[in-house]
Design a protein that fits this description.
heterodimer; A: alpha/beta; Rossmann fold; Alpha-Beta Plaits; 2 domains; nine-stranded mixed β-sheet; 11 helices; B: alpha/beta; 9 strands
Protein backbone atom coordinates (compact mmCIF):
# COMPACT_ATOMS: atom_id res chain seq x y z
CA UNK A 1 0.00 0.00 0.00
CA UNK A 2 1.23 3.46 -0.92
CA UNK A 3 -0.20 6.42 1.01
CA UNK A 4 0.73 9.86 -0.30
CA UNK A 5 0.45 12.99 1.84
CA UNK A 6 -0.17 16.24 -0.06
CA UNK A 7 -1.78 19.59 0.69
CA UNK A 8 -1.84 22.27 -1.99
CA UNK A 9 -0.96 24.96 0.55
CA UNK A 10 2.46 24.85 2.17
CA UNK A 11 3.01 24.57 5.90
CA UNK A 12 -0.30 22.89 6.73
CA UNK A 13 1.38 19.85 8.31
CA UNK A 14 2.13 17.28 5.58
CA UNK A 15 5.37 16.16 7.19
CA UNK A 16 3.75 16.06 10.64
CA UNK A 17 1.01 13.72 9.39
CA UNK A 18 3.36 11.61 7.22
CA UNK A 19 5.95 11.18 9.97
CA UNK A 20 3.26 10.65 12.63
CA UNK A 21 1.69 7.90 10.54
CA UNK A 22 5.09 6.29 9.88
CA UNK A 23 6.16 6.34 13.53
CA UNK A 24 2.80 5.03 14.73
CA UNK A 25 2.62 2.19 12.20
CA UNK A 26 6.27 1.11 12.44
CA UNK A 27 5.58 -1.23 15.38
CA UNK A 28 3.26 -3.42 13.30
CA UNK A 29 4.22 -2.86 9.66
CA UNK A 30 7.43 -2.59 7.69
CA UNK A 31 7.52 1.06 6.66
CA UNK A 32 9.25 2.79 3.79
CA UNK A 33 9.23 6.57 4.02
CA UNK A 34 9.79 8.49 0.75
CA UNK A 35 10.30 12.23 1.23
CA UNK A 36 9.46 13.59 -2.24
CA UNK A 37 9.79 17.28 -1.32
CA UNK A 38 13.20 17.51 -2.93
CA UNK A 39 13.25 21.32 -2.86
CA UNK A 40 12.85 21.57 0.90
CA UNK A 41 13.21 18.05 2.35
CA UNK A 42 12.44 18.21 6.06
CA UNK A 43 11.18 14.77 7.11
CA UNK A 44 14.70 13.61 8.09
CA UNK A 45 14.74 16.31 10.77
CA UNK A 46 11.91 14.43 12.53
CA UNK A 47 12.72 10.81 11.67
CA UNK A 48 16.52 11.24 12.08
CA UNK A 49 17.55 8.38 9.78
CA UNK A 50 21.17 7.30 9.37
CA UNK A 51 21.71 8.36 5.76
CA UNK A 52 24.56 6.02 4.91
CA UNK A 53 23.85 5.71 1.21
CA UNK A 54 24.38 8.68 -1.08
CA UNK A 55 23.96 8.65 -4.82
CA UNK A 56 24.16 11.56 -7.25
CA UNK A 57 21.15 12.13 -9.53
CA UNK A 58 21.92 13.03 -13.11
CA UNK A 59 19.95 14.54 -15.92
CA UNK A 60 21.15 14.07 -19.48
CA UNK A 61 22.78 17.13 -20.98
CA UNK A 62 23.68 17.47 -24.66
CA UNK A 63 27.34 17.87 -25.51
CA UNK A 64 28.14 18.99 -29.05
CA UNK A 65 31.28 17.77 -30.79
CA UNK A 66 31.91 20.82 -32.96
CA UNK A 67 34.39 18.91 -35.13
CA UNK A 68 31.46 16.80 -36.40
CA UNK A 69 28.82 19.57 -36.45
CA UNK A 70 27.95 21.21 -39.77
CA UNK A 71 25.74 23.86 -38.07
CA UNK A 72 22.62 22.74 -39.94
CA UNK A 73 20.38 23.86 -37.08
CA UNK A 74 18.25 20.71 -36.86
CA UNK A 75 18.83 20.42 -33.06
CA UNK A 76 17.63 23.98 -32.48
CA UNK A 77 14.58 23.28 -34.63
CA UNK A 78 13.48 20.18 -32.69
CA UNK A 79 14.28 21.52 -29.20
CA UNK A 80 10.99 22.62 -27.62
CA UNK A 81 12.71 24.38 -24.72
CA UNK A 82 15.15 26.75 -26.49
CA UNK A 83 17.95 24.91 -24.72
CA UNK A 84 20.26 24.78 -27.73
CA UNK A 85 21.17 27.60 -30.12
CA UNK A 86 23.05 27.24 -33.38
CA UNK A 87 25.00 30.14 -34.87
CA UNK A 88 26.97 30.33 -38.06
CA UNK A 89 30.04 28.70 -36.52
CA UNK A 90 29.03 27.90 -32.96
CA UNK A 91 26.51 25.92 -30.91
CA UNK A 92 25.48 26.90 -27.37
CA UNK A 93 23.72 24.64 -24.89
CA UNK A 94 21.70 26.03 -21.94
CA UNK A 95 21.63 23.10 -19.48
CA UNK A 96 19.11 24.68 -17.05
CA UNK A 97 16.49 24.81 -19.82
CA UNK A 98 17.09 21.25 -21.06
CA UNK A 99 14.44 18.64 -20.17
CA UNK A 100 16.63 15.76 -21.29
CA UNK A 101 14.21 14.54 -23.98
CA UNK A 102 17.13 13.41 -26.18
CA UNK A 103 15.63 14.97 -29.33
CA UNK A 104 18.71 16.97 -30.37
CA UNK A 105 20.99 13.99 -30.14
CA UNK A 106 18.55 11.62 -31.86
CA UNK A 107 17.78 13.89 -34.80
CA UNK A 108 21.30 15.25 -35.42
CA UNK A 109 22.20 14.15 -38.97
CA UNK A 110 25.93 14.42 -38.21
CA UNK A 111 25.79 12.42 -34.97
CA UNK A 112 27.58 15.33 -33.38
CA UNK A 113 25.58 15.42 -30.14
CA UNK A 114 26.24 13.04 -27.27
CA UNK A 115 24.57 13.15 -23.87
CA UNK A 116 26.50 13.22 -20.66
CA UNK A 117 25.07 13.24 -17.17
CA UNK A 118 24.85 16.47 -15.22
CA UNK A 119 24.39 16.20 -11.45
CA UNK A 120 21.35 18.16 -10.21
CA UNK A 121 21.14 16.73 -6.71
CA UNK A 122 21.76 13.79 -4.45
CA UNK A 123 19.58 10.90 -3.31
CA UNK A 124 20.16 9.73 0.26
CA UNK A 125 18.84 6.54 1.79
CA UNK A 126 19.11 4.85 5.14
CA UNK A 127 17.21 3.59 8.12
CA UNK A 128 15.39 5.14 11.02
CA UNK A 129 14.78 2.40 13.58
CA UNK A 130 13.20 -0.39 11.56
CA UNK A 131 11.93 2.07 8.93
CA UNK A 132 13.47 2.49 5.46
CA UNK A 133 13.97 6.12 4.56
CA UNK A 134 14.72 7.73 1.17
CA UNK A 135 14.89 11.39 0.19
CA UNK A 136 16.65 13.57 -2.36
CA UNK A 137 18.05 17.07 -2.20
CA UNK A 138 17.92 19.42 -5.19
CA UNK A 139 21.12 21.41 -5.64
CA UNK A 140 20.92 25.15 -5.01
CA UNK A 141 20.30 27.00 -8.28
CA UNK A 142 18.76 24.02 -10.08
CA UNK A 143 15.18 24.55 -11.25
CA UNK A 144 13.93 21.02 -12.05
CA UNK A 145 12.79 18.90 -9.11
CA UNK A 146 10.99 16.18 -11.12
CA UNK A 147 14.01 13.96 -12.00
CA UNK A 148 14.87 13.78 -8.29
CA UNK A 149 11.28 12.88 -7.34
CA UNK A 150 11.46 10.12 -9.96
CA UNK A 151 14.74 8.87 -8.50
CA UNK A 152 13.16 8.64 -5.02
CA UNK A 153 10.06 6.89 -6.36
CA UNK A 154 12.26 4.35 -8.17
CA UNK A 155 13.31 3.07 -4.74
CA UNK A 156 9.73 2.19 -3.91
CA UNK A 157 9.44 -1.16 -2.18
CA UNK A 158 5.92 -2.55 -2.72
CA UNK A 159 6.32 -5.02 0.14
CA UNK A 160 6.30 -2.16 2.63
CA UNK A 161 3.64 0.24 3.76
CA UNK A 162 5.02 3.16 1.73
CA UNK A 163 4.42 6.72 2.93
CA UNK A 164 5.10 9.47 0.39
CA UNK A 165 5.58 13.04 1.65
CA UNK A 166 4.90 15.45 -1.27
CA UNK A 167 5.88 19.08 -1.77
CA UNK A 168 3.27 21.88 -1.63
CA UNK A 169 1.31 22.92 -4.72
CA UNK A 170 -0.38 20.83 -7.39
CA UNK A 171 2.02 21.06 -10.34
CA UNK A 172 4.49 18.64 -11.90
CA UNK A 173 6.65 17.61 -8.88
CA UNK A 174 3.54 16.94 -6.77
CA UNK A 175 1.87 14.92 -9.53
CA UNK A 176 5.05 12.86 -9.89
CA UNK A 177 5.12 12.22 -6.12
CA UNK A 178 1.45 11.32 -5.74
CA UNK A 179 0.86 9.32 -8.90
CA UNK A 180 0.65 5.58 -8.43
CA UNK A 181 -0.47 5.87 -4.80
CA UNK A 182 -3.35 3.85 -3.43
CA UNK A 183 -4.63 6.73 -1.33
CA UNK A 184 -3.87 10.42 -0.88
CA UNK A 185 -4.22 12.19 2.46
CA UNK A 186 -4.84 15.91 1.96
CA UNK A 187 -3.71 17.95 4.95
CA UNK A 188 -5.36 21.34 5.35
CA UNK A 189 -6.07 24.05 7.89
CA UNK A 190 -9.42 25.71 8.68
CA UNK A 191 -8.79 29.02 6.88
CA UNK A 192 -9.96 30.38 3.51
CA UNK A 193 -6.37 29.78 2.27
CA UNK A 194 -6.45 26.17 3.39
CA UNK A 195 -9.81 25.66 1.71
CA UNK A 196 -8.76 27.32 -1.56
CA UNK A 197 -5.67 25.16 -1.93
CA UNK A 198 -7.45 22.02 -0.69
CA UNK A 199 -9.92 22.41 -3.56
CA UNK A 200 -6.98 22.49 -6.00
CA UNK A 201 -5.42 19.42 -4.39
CA UNK A 202 -8.74 17.57 -4.65
CA UNK A 203 -8.85 18.44 -8.35
CA UNK A 204 -5.37 16.95 -8.73
CA UNK A 205 -6.32 13.66 -7.04
CA UNK A 206 -9.34 13.51 -9.33
CA UNK A 207 -7.15 13.99 -12.43
CA UNK A 208 -4.94 11.16 -11.15
CA UNK A 209 -7.97 9.05 -10.14
CA UNK A 210 -6.65 8.43 -6.64
CA UNK A 211 -9.02 8.11 -3.67
CA UNK A 212 -8.47 10.82 -1.07
CA UNK A 213 -9.43 11.93 2.39
CA UNK A 214 -8.90 15.09 4.42
CA UNK A 215 -6.98 15.79 7.63
CA UNK A 216 -7.64 19.14 9.32
CA UNK A 217 -4.57 20.35 11.15
CA UNK A 218 -4.68 23.18 13.72
CA UNK A 219 -8.36 22.36 14.00
CA UNK A 220 -10.42 25.04 15.75
CA UNK A 221 -14.08 24.41 16.45
CA UNK A 222 -14.87 28.06 15.64
CA UNK A 223 -13.53 27.75 12.11
CA UNK A 224 -13.64 24.06 11.08
CA UNK A 225 -17.00 24.55 9.31
CA UNK A 226 -15.27 26.01 6.28
CA UNK A 227 -13.51 22.69 5.58
CA UNK A 228 -16.30 20.43 6.87
CA UNK A 229 -18.89 21.98 4.57
CA UNK A 230 -16.58 21.57 1.58
CA UNK A 231 -15.92 17.89 2.40
CA UNK A 232 -19.61 17.28 2.89
CA UNK A 233 -20.63 18.95 -0.37
CA UNK A 234 -17.97 17.06 -2.34
CA UNK A 235 -18.42 13.69 -0.64
CA UNK A 236 -14.85 13.62 0.62
CA UNK A 237 -14.21 11.75 3.88
CA UNK A 238 -12.89 13.86 6.76
CA UNK A 239 -10.57 11.38 8.45
CA UNK A 240 -8.84 13.24 11.27
CA UNK A 241 -8.71 16.53 13.13
CA UNK A 242 -5.55 17.58 14.92
CA UNK A 243 -6.47 20.36 17.33
CA UNK A 244 -4.30 23.45 17.57
CA UNK A 245 -1.99 23.10 20.54
CA UNK A 246 1.03 25.03 21.77
CA UNK A 247 2.42 21.70 23.02
CA UNK A 248 2.41 20.11 19.53
CA UNK A 249 3.81 23.33 18.00
CA UNK A 250 6.58 23.38 20.62
CA UNK A 251 7.55 19.77 19.91
CA UNK A 252 7.48 20.51 16.17
CA UNK A 253 9.77 23.52 16.59
CA UNK A 254 12.40 21.30 18.21
CA UNK A 255 12.13 18.54 15.58
CA UNK A 256 9.98 16.15 17.60
CA UNK A 257 6.96 14.64 15.88
CA UNK A 258 3.73 14.59 17.89
CA UNK A 259 3.57 10.78 17.77
CA UNK A 260 6.98 10.69 19.42
CA UNK A 261 6.40 13.50 21.93
CA UNK A 262 2.83 12.56 22.89
CA UNK A 263 2.59 8.74 22.56
CA UNK A 264 -1.23 8.77 22.91
CA UNK A 265 -1.32 10.11 19.36
CA UNK A 266 0.01 6.82 17.99
CA UNK A 267 -3.33 5.12 18.53
CA UNK A 268 -5.05 7.98 16.65
CA UNK A 269 -2.66 7.63 13.71
CA UNK A 270 -3.21 3.85 13.68
CA UNK A 271 -6.95 4.53 13.47
CA UNK A 272 -6.26 6.93 10.60
CA UNK A 273 -4.46 4.11 8.80
CA UNK A 274 -7.43 1.77 9.37
CA UNK A 275 -9.80 4.36 7.89
CA UNK A 276 -7.54 4.86 4.88
CA UNK A 277 -7.54 1.11 4.26
CA UNK A 278 -11.32 0.89 4.52
CA UNK A 279 -11.85 3.77 2.08
CA UNK A 280 -9.26 2.65 -0.45
CA UNK A 281 -10.64 -0.90 -0.43
CA UNK A 282 -14.19 0.38 -0.88
CA UNK A 283 -13.09 2.51 -3.84
CA UNK A 284 -11.14 -0.41 -5.35
CA UNK A 285 -14.18 -2.69 -5.03
CA UNK A 286 -16.42 -0.06 -6.60
CA UNK A 287 -14.00 0.29 -9.53
CA UNK A 288 -14.06 -3.47 -10.14
CA UNK B 1 11.26 51.27 -10.06
CA UNK B 2 12.02 48.78 -7.27
CA UNK B 3 10.91 45.17 -6.88
CA UNK B 4 10.48 43.44 -3.52
CA UNK B 5 10.03 39.66 -3.42
CA UNK B 6 8.69 37.87 -0.32
CA UNK B 7 9.76 34.20 -0.21
CA UNK B 8 10.30 31.52 2.43
CA UNK B 9 11.61 28.18 1.18
CA UNK B 10 9.32 26.35 3.59
CA UNK B 11 5.61 26.79 2.97
CA UNK B 12 3.20 28.26 5.49
CA UNK B 13 5.62 30.55 7.30
CA UNK B 14 3.50 33.64 6.60
CA UNK B 15 4.52 35.09 3.22
CA UNK B 16 1.01 36.05 2.16
CA UNK B 17 0.13 37.39 5.61
CA UNK B 18 3.15 39.72 5.46
CA UNK B 19 2.46 40.81 1.86
CA UNK B 20 -1.18 41.50 2.79
CA UNK B 21 -0.03 43.93 5.45
CA UNK B 22 2.53 45.53 3.12
CA UNK B 23 -0.34 46.05 0.69
CA UNK B 24 -1.96 48.29 3.32
CA UNK B 25 1.24 50.08 4.37
CA UNK B 26 3.09 50.66 1.09
CA UNK B 27 2.28 53.60 -1.15
CA UNK B 28 2.44 53.83 -4.95
CA UNK B 29 2.89 50.12 -5.59
CA UNK B 30 1.70 47.28 -7.79
CA UNK B 31 1.04 43.92 -6.13
CA UNK B 32 1.83 40.61 -7.81
CA UNK B 33 1.13 37.04 -6.72
CA UNK B 34 3.80 34.77 -8.19
CA UNK B 35 2.75 31.68 -6.23
CA UNK B 36 0.90 30.63 -9.37
CA UNK B 37 0.69 27.04 -8.19
CA UNK B 38 -1.36 27.84 -5.06
CA UNK B 39 -2.19 31.55 -5.21
CA UNK B 40 -3.76 32.97 -2.05
CA UNK B 41 -3.13 36.72 -2.03
CA UNK B 42 -6.37 37.38 -3.95
CA UNK B 43 -8.29 36.00 -0.97
CA UNK B 44 -6.98 38.92 1.11
CA UNK B 45 -7.09 41.65 -1.53
CA UNK B 46 -10.52 40.80 -2.99
CA UNK B 47 -9.66 41.93 -6.51
CA UNK B 48 -12.01 43.16 -9.19
CA UNK B 49 -10.69 41.65 -12.42
CA UNK B 50 -10.21 44.21 -15.22
CA UNK B 51 -8.44 42.18 -17.91
CA UNK B 52 -7.39 38.58 -18.14
CA UNK B 53 -5.71 36.25 -20.58
CA UNK B 54 -5.09 32.59 -21.24
CA UNK B 55 -1.71 31.08 -20.55
CA UNK B 56 -0.33 28.44 -22.87
CA UNK B 57 2.58 26.86 -21.05
CA UNK B 58 3.72 24.48 -23.72
CA UNK B 59 2.47 21.77 -26.01
CA UNK B 60 1.07 18.28 -25.62
CA UNK B 61 1.35 15.49 -28.15
CA UNK B 62 -1.79 14.02 -29.68
CA UNK B 63 -1.81 10.80 -31.70
CA UNK B 64 -4.32 10.49 -34.52
CA UNK B 65 -5.56 6.89 -34.20
CA UNK B 66 -6.49 6.75 -37.89
CA UNK B 67 -3.01 7.66 -39.12
CA UNK B 68 -1.15 5.65 -36.48
CA UNK B 69 0.22 2.27 -37.64
CA UNK B 70 1.33 1.36 -34.12
CA UNK B 71 4.97 0.95 -35.16
CA UNK B 72 6.08 1.82 -31.63
CA UNK B 73 8.74 4.39 -32.55
CA UNK B 74 7.17 7.05 -30.32
CA UNK B 75 6.94 4.74 -27.31
CA UNK B 76 10.55 3.71 -27.77
CA UNK B 77 11.82 7.31 -27.92
CA UNK B 78 9.62 8.98 -25.29
CA UNK B 79 11.70 9.53 -22.16
CA UNK B 80 8.73 10.58 -20.07
CA UNK B 81 6.80 7.31 -20.38
CA UNK B 82 3.90 9.41 -21.60
CA UNK B 83 2.67 7.08 -24.37
CA UNK B 84 0.80 3.96 -23.35
CA UNK B 85 0.88 0.55 -25.05
CA UNK B 86 -2.34 1.39 -26.89
CA UNK B 87 -0.84 4.62 -28.27
CA UNK B 88 -2.61 7.11 -26.03
CA UNK B 89 -0.70 10.14 -24.75
CA UNK B 90 -1.03 10.76 -21.01
CA UNK B 91 -1.18 14.57 -20.83
CA UNK B 92 -0.06 14.50 -17.18
CA UNK B 93 3.25 12.92 -18.20
CA UNK B 94 3.81 14.51 -21.62
CA UNK B 95 6.38 17.34 -21.40
CA UNK B 96 5.71 18.53 -24.95
CA UNK B 97 9.25 17.85 -26.18
CA UNK B 98 7.96 16.90 -29.63
CA UNK B 99 10.32 13.96 -30.15
CA UNK B 100 7.36 11.71 -31.07
CA UNK B 101 6.04 14.40 -33.43
CA UNK B 102 9.35 14.65 -35.29
CA UNK B 103 10.04 10.91 -35.26
CA UNK B 104 6.68 9.48 -36.38
CA UNK B 105 7.15 8.04 -39.88
CA UNK B 106 3.40 8.36 -40.60
CA UNK B 107 2.91 11.95 -39.38
CA UNK B 108 0.28 10.69 -36.97
CA UNK B 109 1.38 12.93 -34.10
CA UNK B 110 0.44 16.57 -33.72
CA UNK B 111 1.44 19.05 -31.03
CA UNK B 112 -1.43 20.93 -29.45
CA UNK B 113 -1.04 24.20 -27.55
CA UNK B 114 -1.73 23.39 -23.92
CA UNK B 115 -3.98 25.83 -22.09
CA UNK B 116 -2.41 25.52 -18.67
CA UNK B 117 -3.61 28.54 -16.76
CA UNK B 118 -4.66 32.16 -16.89
CA UNK B 119 -3.54 35.56 -15.62
CA UNK B 120 -5.54 38.59 -14.45
CA UNK B 121 -4.95 42.29 -14.00
CA UNK B 122 -7.19 43.56 -11.23
CA UNK B 123 -8.03 46.60 -9.20
CA UNK B 124 -8.11 46.36 -5.40
CA UNK B 125 -8.65 48.92 -2.65
CA UNK B 126 -4.89 48.65 -2.07
CA UNK B 127 -3.94 49.33 -5.67
CA UNK B 128 -3.42 47.41 -8.91
CA UNK B 129 -2.81 43.68 -8.62
CA UNK B 130 -1.57 41.03 -11.09
CA UNK B 131 -2.31 37.39 -10.31
CA UNK B 132 -2.51 34.09 -12.12
CA UNK B 133 -3.45 30.51 -11.70
CA UNK B 134 -1.70 27.50 -13.08
CA UNK B 135 -4.01 24.63 -13.92
CA UNK B 136 -3.84 21.56 -11.75
CA UNK B 137 -1.03 19.19 -12.73
CA UNK B 138 0.28 21.76 -15.23
CA UNK B 139 3.84 22.57 -16.14
CA UNK B 140 5.91 25.63 -16.83
CA UNK B 141 5.11 27.54 -13.67
CA UNK B 142 8.29 29.55 -14.29
CA UNK B 143 6.92 30.86 -17.57
CA UNK B 144 3.66 31.95 -15.93
CA UNK B 145 5.61 33.67 -13.15
CA UNK B 146 7.55 35.56 -15.84
CA UNK B 147 4.22 36.55 -17.43
CA UNK B 148 2.87 37.91 -14.13
CA UNK B 149 6.06 39.89 -13.57
CA UNK B 150 6.00 41.26 -17.12
CA UNK B 151 2.39 42.43 -16.67
CA UNK B 152 3.18 43.92 -13.24
CA UNK B 153 6.11 45.84 -14.75
CA UNK B 154 3.97 47.24 -17.56
CA UNK B 155 1.24 48.18 -15.09
CA UNK B 156 3.67 49.97 -12.76
CA UNK B 157 5.02 52.00 -15.66
CA UNK B 158 1.57 52.86 -16.97
CA UNK B 159 0.22 53.91 -13.57
CA UNK B 160 3.41 55.66 -12.42
CA UNK B 161 4.08 53.34 -9.47
CA UNK B 162 7.62 52.98 -8.15
CA UNK B 163 7.40 49.63 -6.35
CA UNK B 164 6.29 46.09 -7.17
CA UNK B 165 5.60 43.83 -4.18
CA UNK B 166 5.73 40.15 -5.15
CA UNK B 167 4.26 37.32 -3.10
CA UNK B 168 6.55 34.42 -3.97
CA UNK B 169 6.13 30.64 -4.13
CA UNK B 170 7.53 28.13 -1.61
CA UNK B 171 10.43 25.83 -2.45
CA UNK B 172 13.59 26.60 -4.42
CA UNK B 173 12.68 25.26 -7.88
CA UNK B 174 11.53 26.68 -11.18
CA UNK B 175 8.87 29.24 -10.07
CA UNK B 176 11.20 30.52 -7.31
CA UNK B 177 14.07 30.96 -9.75
CA UNK B 178 11.72 32.84 -12.11
CA UNK B 179 10.53 35.04 -9.21
CA UNK B 180 14.04 35.93 -8.04
CA UNK B 181 15.64 37.20 -11.23
CA UNK B 182 16.25 40.93 -11.15
CA UNK B 183 14.48 41.80 -7.89
CA UNK B 184 16.03 44.46 -5.65
CA UNK B 185 15.43 42.66 -2.37
CA UNK B 186 14.25 39.21 -1.31
CA UNK B 187 12.59 39.24 2.10
CA UNK B 188 12.72 35.70 3.47
CA UNK B 189 9.96 34.94 5.98
CA UNK B 190 10.99 32.17 8.34
CA UNK B 191 9.84 30.60 11.60
CA UNK B 192 11.80 29.35 14.63
CA UNK B 193 11.49 25.60 13.96
CA UNK B 194 14.08 23.07 12.83
CA UNK B 195 12.35 22.81 9.45
CA UNK B 196 12.13 26.62 9.16
CA UNK B 197 15.87 27.02 9.81
CA UNK B 198 16.81 24.17 7.48
CA UNK B 199 14.80 25.66 4.63
CA UNK B 200 15.95 29.22 5.41
CA UNK B 201 19.59 28.28 4.82
CA UNK B 202 18.68 26.73 1.46
CA UNK B 203 16.63 29.65 0.17
CA UNK B 204 19.32 32.15 1.26
CA UNK B 205 21.75 30.01 -0.78
CA UNK B 206 19.49 30.31 -3.82
CA UNK B 207 19.30 34.11 -3.43
CA UNK B 208 23.13 34.21 -3.23
CA UNK B 209 23.41 31.97 -6.28
CA UNK B 210 21.40 34.46 -8.31
CA UNK B 211 23.09 37.48 -6.71
CA UNK B 212 19.94 38.87 -5.08
CA UNK B 213 20.14 41.00 -1.90
CA UNK B 214 18.24 39.50 1.00
CA UNK B 215 16.79 40.21 4.44
CA UNK B 216 15.01 37.99 6.95
CA UNK B 217 11.76 38.31 8.90
CA UNK B 218 11.31 35.92 11.83
CA UNK B 219 7.61 35.17 12.13
CA UNK B 220 6.04 33.46 15.19
CA UNK B 221 9.17 34.68 17.02
CA UNK B 222 8.08 33.49 20.47
CA UNK B 223 7.12 29.95 19.35
CA UNK B 224 10.65 28.92 20.34
CA UNK B 225 12.84 31.82 21.47
CA UNK B 226 15.96 29.63 21.50
CA UNK B 227 15.48 28.79 17.83
CA UNK B 228 14.76 32.46 17.06
CA UNK B 229 18.10 33.39 18.67
CA UNK B 230 19.74 30.68 16.56
CA UNK B 231 18.31 32.30 13.40
CA UNK B 232 19.53 35.74 14.52
CA UNK B 233 22.98 34.27 15.16
CA UNK B 234 23.03 32.63 11.73
CA UNK B 235 21.98 35.89 10.04
CA UNK B 236 24.59 37.93 11.92
CA UNK B 237 27.32 35.45 10.96
CA UNK B 238 26.31 35.55 7.31
CA UNK B 239 25.74 39.29 7.09
CA UNK B 240 22.00 39.06 6.46
CA UNK B 241 19.84 41.79 8.00
CA UNK B 242 16.96 40.71 10.27
CA UNK B 243 14.38 43.22 9.13
CA UNK B 244 11.68 42.27 11.59
CA UNK B 245 10.40 39.98 14.33
CA UNK B 246 6.73 39.18 14.57
CA UNK B 247 5.38 37.55 17.74
CA UNK B 248 2.57 35.06 17.73
CA UNK B 249 -0.81 36.72 18.29
CA UNK B 250 -4.40 35.39 18.21
CA UNK B 251 -5.18 38.23 15.78
CA UNK B 252 -3.48 36.15 13.06
CA UNK B 253 -6.12 33.43 13.30
CA UNK B 254 -8.93 35.98 13.27
CA UNK B 255 -7.58 37.88 10.28
CA UNK B 256 -7.07 34.62 8.36
CA UNK B 257 -10.60 33.48 9.10
CA UNK B 258 -11.92 36.86 7.96
CA UNK B 259 -9.53 36.89 4.96
CA UNK B 260 -8.46 40.45 5.80
CA UNK B 261 -4.90 41.85 5.96
CA UNK B 262 -3.47 41.19 9.42
CA UNK B 263 -2.56 44.83 10.08
CA UNK B 264 -6.28 45.68 10.06
CA UNK B 265 -6.86 43.24 12.92
CA UNK B 266 -3.65 43.54 14.87
CA UNK B 267 -3.45 44.99 18.36
CA UNK B 268 -0.96 47.77 19.12
CA UNK B 269 2.00 45.51 19.81
CA UNK B 270 1.66 43.46 16.67
CA UNK B 271 0.87 46.49 14.50
CA UNK B 272 4.09 48.12 15.75
CA UNK B 273 6.08 45.00 14.80
CA UNK B 274 4.62 44.93 11.30
CA UNK B 275 5.13 48.67 10.76
CA UNK B 276 8.71 48.36 11.99
CA UNK B 277 9.30 45.48 9.56
CA UNK B 278 7.91 47.54 6.68
CA UNK B 279 10.09 50.55 7.61
CA UNK B 280 13.24 48.39 7.68
CA UNK B 281 12.34 46.85 4.33
CA UNK B 282 11.72 50.30 2.84
CA UNK B 283 15.14 51.45 4.06
CA UNK B 284 16.83 48.36 2.61
CA UNK B 285 15.15 48.98 -0.75
Amino acid sequence: MIIAVASGKGGTGKTTVAAGLAISMSAERKIQFLDCDVEEPDAHLFLRPSLLEKEPVFVPEPVVDQSLCDYCGRCMEVCAYNAIAVFERNVLVFPQLCHGCGGCSYFCPCRAIAEKGRIIGVLEAGRSGNMDFVHAVLNIGEAQPVPLVKAVKKRLNPECLVIVDASPGTSCPVVEAVRGSGFCLLVTEPTPFGLHDLAMAVEMTEALKIPRGVVINRSDLKYDDIIENFCLSRGIPLLLKIPFSREVAGFYARGVNMAEGIPEWRETFRELYQKVMVFSETVARYKR
Amino acid sequence: MKQLLVISGKGGTGKTTIVGSFAVLAKKKVLADCDVDAPNLHLLLKPEVKTSGDFYGGKKALIDAEECRQCGKCIELCRFEAISGDFQVNPLLCEGCGVCFHACPYEAVSLIDDLSGNWCISETVYGPFVHARLGVAAENSGKLVAKVREKAGELAEEKGKDLIIIDGPPGIGCPVVASLSGVDLALVVTEPTVAGIHDLTRILGVADYFGVRKAVCINKYDLDQEKSKEIEGYCAENGVAVAGKIYYDPAVGKSLAAATPLINYAGNKMARQIIKLWQSVEELL
